[in-house]
Amino acid sequence: DLSGVDCGCSASLYLTTMRRNTIMSACSDFYCDARSSCGVECSELDIQRSDMHLWQSVAHVLGDPAGAGIWTTEGYGPKASCVDTSKPFNVSAAFPVDAEGLLTGVAVSLSQEGGACSLSASINRYTKGGDDALP
């Protein structure tokens, strides 16, 4: 329910590679993220960076704080046709893998009971330095 999350605020859900980080951060723990908020940078997957007007899902590899992202504004927002953010809605995230178990993409879908449609987007290719950064 993002009905109270207006411009200037953000509701976020993201995954980082903290378990791989062995450097004590400025936050007195082993926290790390793509923007090195506590002084330590690591890969990050933002499943949700949103407010009631904008939804973003972004993948970041180490050294790329901008990352590769997908975002939704059409059909999403207060009184929007697909996802009316003045009411609760559902989010699903999928992480497809290849035969070797390596990540091949990220897919996010937003839906709402009684909504006229659902919104889906995916990141299937993300290159950094000429290499595919997803696997």
Task: Describe, in plain words, how this protein is organized in 3D.
Strands 1-2-3-4 form a four-stranded antiparallel sheet, with no helix packed on it. It has a three-stranded antiparallel sheet with strand order 7-8-9, with no helix packed on it. It is globular, with a radius of gyration of 16 Å. Helix content is 0%, strand content 36%. The chain has no helices and eleven strands. The mean pLDDT is 85. The chain is mostly beta strands.
Largest sheet, in brief, is: 4 strands, antiparallel
How many strand units? 11
Distance between the termini: 33 Å
Q: Which residue ranges are poorly predicted, with pLDDT under 50 across at least 5 consecutive positions?
A: none
Q: Report Rg.
A: 16 Å
What is the share of helical residues? under 10%
**Order of adjacent strands in the largest pleated sheet:** 1-2-3-4
Report strand %: 35-45%
Structural class: mainly beta
Average of the residue pLDDT scores: 85
Count of DSSP H/I helices: 0
